[in-house]
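Quick check before the chapter quiz. The format below is the same one you will see on the exam, so make sure you can read both the input and the output lines.
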Amino acid sequence: LTYARSCAEAFDELTTAEFDMQYVVVHFAEEGGPLWSFPADLSEASVAHAPRHSSRAGVQALCALEADVFVPHMFCYPGLTAYRGLFGVLGAAFLGSSAEAQALVSNKGHARLVMASAGVPVAEGEVLIKNLKETTSISAPCIVKPCSEANSIGITLVKTDDLLQAAIDTAFALDDEIVVERFIPPGREMRVGVLEEEDGSLRVLPMFEYFMSSKRPIRTPEDKLATDDKGLPTGLAWAKGSRKCPADVEEALAARLGEAAKRAHVALGCRDYSIFDVRIDPEDNFFFLESSLFCSFAPGSVIVTMSKATAEIEHQALLRTMLRRAAERSPRHAKLSAKVHTMKPKRAKVVA
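Here is the expected output.
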């Protein structure tokens, strides 16, 4: 809800005039869940008082909405995969990459192999699998992390070999597959974003830089998410001055990073946009660490911030373009187009 609320609060008059916004909340944590609700808006009061429905009744109500486009904000694995697949079954399009692409990049071990096969540099490393392969030939200093956790949960920078097994045990406590890879010393850490244009070409956006140091050599969960006293995320977290967009990147290095990001975007089957975490060593050799295919389209989200840094792409204009393009992918739009349907006279239904 944190991501979705930030997105909805930023809708301007042009966006709400063109699109009929409706909301669906899936409540995983409730007893008997997941339960579904359909609040009028995403305020705390509306969400709290909206009637709850079983999954079966929720899907039936979702069908009755006859939505043209979904804007998924569920960041958990089922939300990134199963629920996106459900949208396709219902004949509605959605912003972002397919369930299959999300499943691929959600496993860091699988994603790094696909990127490497496309000629994208990745750090030397290997995947360990619980009960099958639990030892590594990679020595310290190295990074150990679960394959399928997000926001750096379970990551350990192993500085000496005597600490390696403890790091492996920590990662295996969270996932049956883990990645052990050579530590790339600072250097720099960048996020490279790719945006699909109207004509299908790929545009590399201004890059983010996260400032690392010998005292703070990697980004941890505390660098990425603010949480409440229950450990639930309340928003993004970063220290003032710890990042910059647009980053100051020498032209030749930026060109190399951009070409590699485009190759990764295509190889991973990304759609609409993609984000890549990249580590650059002191000699300007770069290594792609992982990818993210999630964007909340809130004002402070990564793709929106990168796009605004071009000085050409305004936040809500970007969202409207994305919604129109997604609507054109839906089977409903294809049928309506045969009747010379245009989106202006009848607002497209968007479900967040």
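If your answer matched, good. Residues 336-345 have pLDDT under 50 and may be disordered.
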